[in-house]
Amino acid sequence: MQKKLIALAVAGLASTAAFAQTNVTVYGVMDATFDYVGASQSTAATKVKNDSRVSANSSYLGFKGVEDLGNGLKAVFQIEGGLTNDAAGAWGGANRDTYVGLTGGFGTVVAGNLTAAGRALGAKVDVNSGATGIGYQGALYGKVAGTTSGVDDRTANAVAYISPNFSGFSALAAWGAGSEQKDTATRTDNVWSLGLNYAAGPVYAGYAYTQVDNVVGTIEAKAKSHRLGGTFNFGAGQVGLLWDRTDANTSDSTDSARNVWLLNGKFNVGAKGAVIAGYGKAGDVGNVNNTGATHAFVGYEHSLSKRTVLKAIYAQVRNEAGASYNFYNAATGSVAGVVAGNDPKGFQFGIRHSF
């Protein structure tokens, strides 16, 4: 599944079966939905016309492999890129998690374009297959009044260390250099990430800290995110909780911080079906009134096999007058033309196949 913890990805490579192979593994997801989306007029904002489309929902193609170097040391690599299977079918190259590194008893060290701790924690708690589509709850967290802060972007020019698993506990630490050219007017200077995770039986819990140092012209901006989340699998389904505080602090004394909390659940229906639902609320930014929003979704997923899922979902964002939250991004179903006060909403019907 996309946007998973680097530690989980490497753990999958590190299985006995994976190390026995000498060839490259090809894998990916093709996800296509028919959407009917738009944005209602909740304030004086202009209504965004309802529109029909087909969405790729973060479809991707990847290659990964592992080589046993002896004495418990292995080399691992992954190359992964997004697919626009709703249009001309272009492959995004290595624009998703792409890295090379070493793994052994000491843990794992990788370098490349990486999913950091905060992004991974959010996806881990999400109940939508692949953590994508208009139901994906990243619509709220990592943003401030609807403006993306950067804390949920993949980390470019990055190195990361993933610890071994100690009785269910593991840690991740990453640093990204951001933009390669530090003399440009708009750039990212540093990205810092720390993740602490616990997984045992039906329980998962995690904490993530992310800091992004940006420069826009003469203004220096730091976006900081603290995130706590967890899931509990009770056999007939799963429930999840997440809390996020993102604070944007700039050198021109413009400070903003807001809290987000969300709740979701997945409830099995028979042997192959599941109802999914969730609700999240973003609070006001600092002391600025009417800058909050809510995001709610309900859907049904039906597994035709272990790899193929049919899905249907309805989702809606309700913005206050000073907020412009949207579905997560273009790859996961955002509605074009949304401004402060609009309420994005829509239906999705489609199929997801993993290979």
Could you walk me through the main structural features you see in this protein, from its secondary elements to its overall organization?
This protein has a single domain (32-57, 112-354), classed as Porin (Beta Barrel), CATH 2.40.160. A hairpin with a 4-residue loop joins strand 14 (237-250) and strand 15. The protein has a 16-stranded antiparallel β-barrel with strand order 1-3-4-5-6-9-10-11-12-13-14-15-16-17-18-19. A two-stranded antiparallel sheet has the order 7-8. It has helices spanning 6-13, 16-20, 117-125, and strands at residues 25-41, 48-55, 60-70, 73-82, 98-104, 107-114, 143-144, 147-148, 155-162, 169-176, 186-200, 203-216, 219-233, 237-250, 255-269, 273-282, 293-303, 308-319, 342-354. By secondary structure, it is mostly beta strands. The radius of gyration is 20 Å and the shape is globular. The model is unreliable at 1-21 (pLDDT under 50). The longest helix is centred in the middle third of the chain and has 9 residues, at 117-125. It has three helices and 19 strands.
Quick gist of this model?
Helices cover 6% and strands 56% of the residues.
Q: Which descriptors apply to this entry?
A:
single chain, 355 residues, mainly beta, Porin, 16-stranded antiparallel β-barrel, two-stranded antiparallel ribbon, 56% strand, globular, disordered N terminus
